[in-house]
Amino acid sequence: MNIRDLEYFLQVCEDKNIHKAAEKLFISPQGLSQTIKKIEKELGAEILKRTNYGVDLTDEGRVFAKHARQITEHMVFLNREIEQLANVETGQLFISISYGMFSFYKAKCILDFKALYPDITLEYREYTDKKAVESVWYGESDLALTYLPVDKERFRITPLNRNELFLVVNKKNPLSTKEHVSFGDLRDQRLILQNQEFVLHNFVKDQCKKHGFVPNIIFESNGVCMCNKLCRDNIGVTVSMKHVLEDIKAENLVLIPFEKRAYLDIVLISRLEMPETKEMKLYKDFILTYSQHF
């Protein structure tokens, strides 16, 4: 088997369907099935089993998938290190960015970078916080703009900004008259939060735990703005950042600061063992300078 075979297999793992994976790989389902059979023959074990919805991994398949990912990742790193040694400029940069971050840095950030470096192809991809970090780890992106905490044993971390958190409530909520709140004030509130793919989710839950209660989370969203929209309709309260709320433009919402100021720290990350390309260094210098204006 070769790297291409591993990549084909991993696509099947992701889609759990031979036909869907084949479409994405631009090959026939028959050809993809033959690749899987070839791998199974070399391994001497079945790695996929059919289900009512497509295919799933066998126990042997899960072990093989883990090592296949590691091998393909290392090939990405190998190629990039060779490029570095050969002093080859890639001319492209893939950056993952956590949902809502564009509201903070604004689209002008992208335009300014492109104006400075027109020969660099810049591609942004918006993800949940967890996926943004994973995309760098798995070599899908060069850099990610996301929030702490991030594993410092795995990633090169460049601090950028601090985003203050506010409680967002409808004007009909009794809390709306308070100048400051604490996380203890959330005890009897219906809480709307981003889901566990976001750093903010665990941050709020941890703060509530420190105040001796489990928050009443009535809705979890994968969309940054959805929480604020539900507060606008007085469904519950949420914790958010001021720049995200500005996109909603709801006159019936109130932002209340916390007595003990609460923040999420914005960072730029890259994989620690991955050498920085010239393009990565240029972007890091650019975003560091750009962040000083906020």
Summarize the structure in words:
α8 links the parallel β7 and β8. It is globular, with a radius of gyration of 23 Å. The strands form 3 sheets. Strands 3, 4, 5, 6, 9, 10 and 11 form a 7-stranded mixed sheet that branches. With 294 residues, it is an alpha/beta fold. 30% of the residues are buried.
Task: Break the fold down into its secondary structure elements and pairings.
Elements: H1 3-15, H2 18-25, H3 29-43, E1 48-50, E2 55-57, H4 59-85, E3 92-98, H5 101-105, H6 108-116, E4 121-127, H7 129-137, E5 143-147, E6 155-170, E7 190-194, H8 199-210, E8 216-221, H9 224-232, E9 238-241, H10 242-245, E10 253-257, E11 263-271, H11 278-291
Helix pairs in contact: 1-2, 1-4, 2-3
Specify the overall morphology. Answer: globular
Rg from Cα: 23 Å
Report the average pLDDT across residues: 87
**Number of helices in the DSSP assignment:** 11
Strand content: 15-25%
**Main pleated sheet:** 7 strands, mixed
Give me the strand/helix succession. HHHEEHEHHEHEEEHEHEHEEH
Q: What's the number of extended β-strand segments?
A: 11
Secondary-structure content class: alpha/beta
- What helical percentage do the residues reach? 40-55%
Low-confidence stretches: none
Q: How far apart, in Å, are the first and last alpha carbons?
A: 51 Å
In short:
The protein contains eleven helices and eleven strands.
Q: What key phrases describe this protein's structure?
A:
alpha/beta; 294 residues; two-stranded antiparallel ribbon; 7-stranded mixed sheet; single chain
